């Protein structure tokens, strides 16, 4: 018996968006930007968000116009079953690749920093089984769980910001454009799909108490995430400075590693690890669930929770192919993001065009 | 249904439907046989010869109020001169006519007096029960310093009267549902008609009606029969012995379930926060109550996580500790031969033993526990180099904190979960510990109690008092708990 149907509301959506996008402030994404942009890593995401804003708003407009659909249903409705399936599969595939590379990065991070003697696969199996077990409980549980653990994570973030701030030097932000304005622009645009979750989340458009909750949630969460990412990246810049920043892989951990809290607490990174690990778990629980949801929606599988195990497992296997973390981050992830980006920039406009065409045909 | 069961029920029905005859002797002979008159020393069968006719009384001498019996039943029957119906003669508050032997037997079982008159094919049941029970005493398990002190007692009428005293309103409904067969016992649902959610009420009623068991004598057993997840670690009903607490819940739209023979009541549906709250939180002023809640919240976290974190950090993340602390731990463990996880488990189990023994031990022997616990298990174990002093501190801390849990039902949940977390932490350090915590929280947020999410109103959120970790100033509590979907949301 359920007293309230679809109980999730705005606050859960904010938490979800924050978890899946905002916490890219703490993974290896800044290292990806730092490779070329140097200490302008904080400008990279701004460019990316601005570039993604137009397709995102178009998509939100379409979802609002056709009230009853989620992302895949909308695609099917607008461009027909065949083309819809192809586009849906493309979205799924790119999401899947991003999931695999991101997950490998996070697992490598855990492995390298906290369990240097363990084989990657052991940690990977623990990580992904926990994700699958929890994702299996369904969207409502995931939403509630995210909200329930949000205080821990927010507390961690605030603590990191405050602690890191003491070691930051404002002048290190210069040269403001790091590797050059053109480089930053190019990086920001070509890697804008690092934040492709914005365009995959609308699969859950109908899963909230009202669609309004989803819209409000994604806008609020998106803005909060932008602020968080940009301020974190700026903080990294101010801590590590030009030319050092592109040699550090795990900026978040490194930044917590070098700060101290008085004379007694010289090693406070454990405290920050708790929130970080929670958020990593949550992020991949949500991500895995969304990917399976998209796949289930394309092939009209009602109980797509059954897909979590195979998709999670295949994703793990595929992501273990690159020989090392560096190859994974700097070659596989970078290349795949550059390939995926055009798809995400174009497809909402494609749907928009189709909607426009449909309207015109009707009248 | 099996054929022998059918025969059985047919025989019972036939007996129950037996009409009361005009012949007094027949009726008496039948009931005396049924109730083994002569063998049952407290079953009385007395005839009364009044001026207007011959009456016969049947009752258990141990269950009726003898004073009422002589003053309000026997005397009037002996004194009345005119032949008027019995229910007009007698001055007891409740007297009802009965038509068949089934009703007569039911009345006798409940402790009433059954009255027959010669030449009348009808009997009367006079309810003058006087079952013995404890007086209303102070609450033993949910103590408060500020606030009412009385607690429920093992008598249904007394408990209902305590509800009526607290909520004097015509909307307070006290409804009975029979449960069981040998014999059927009434389960009493107490709710406010104009607040309760009908869907929830219907669900609970249905669950009670669906119980097929010979008998249920108290709410403690009933709880396990109507729970949704009997094997879960998390209780789905609140067990409270305080009438003030129960009526606070009822006046918010919850449903209270009471039974005779239970000195507590059940509240349903429930959220996890109610186990964390104490009734005193509402009686204390805002700041004091929230301070006490803060302490309790810390206690909960300590009891759940401190031992597990110790295992995880010392085993797997020693490089992440301040160096002085690390050295302190290392030097205290220098002579200890056991691995850390085993050491912690040893002390935790020892603590659980002390606690279990403390509950079961006869009170004159109570101080023994303290001596054994403190001296042998603490001091001596350290001196024998079996455990390190730090572990004793940690286990004592987690044990002490688990006593701060406001409710006995959730106490076990915390204690058992703690062992799960210790086991998880010893597998893969913080990674598996945090994973286990996530799984635990995911389970908590996914379950529901009679359709109400266990974690509301934190998430999913509805209009409510938002009484979770901390409470608001009472004046600002505008809404009733919306997750119950009550008929009236607005408190004002």
UniProtKB/TrEMBL annotation, chain A:
- Asked whether the UniProt record includes Cell membrane among its keywords, one would answer no
- Compartments, record wording: Membrane
For this UniProt record, the keywords arranged alphabetically read as follows: Germination, Membrane, Transmembrane, Transmembrane helix, Transport
Main localization, broad class? membrane
Q: Which residues form the signal peptide?
A: none
Q: Where are the transmembrane segments?
A: 12-34, 40-63, 83-101, 113-135, 142-163, 214-237, 258-278, 284-301, 308-327, 339-357
Family the entry assigns: Belongs to the amino acid-polyamine-organocation (APC) superfamily. Spore germination protein (SGP) (TC 2.A.3.9) family.
Protein name per UniProt: Spore germination protein (Amino acid permease)
Task: Identify the species of origin.
Answer: Terribacillus saccharophilus
From TrEMBL, chain B:
Q: Please verify whether the record's keywords include Transmembrane.
A: yes
**Chief place where the protein resides:** membrane
Domain of life where this protein originates: Bacteria
- Answer whether the UniProt record assigns the keyword Disulfide bond to this protein: no
Q: What is this protein called?
A: Spore germination protein
**Compartments (UniProt record):** Cell membrane; Membrane
Q: Which family does it belong to?
A: Belongs to the GerABKA family.
One Pfam family, please name it.
GerA
**Record keywords:** Membrane, Transmembrane, Transmembrane helix
Q: Where do the TM regions start and end? A: 297-316, 386-407, 419-443
Topology in the lipid bilayer is annotated as: Multi-pass membrane protein
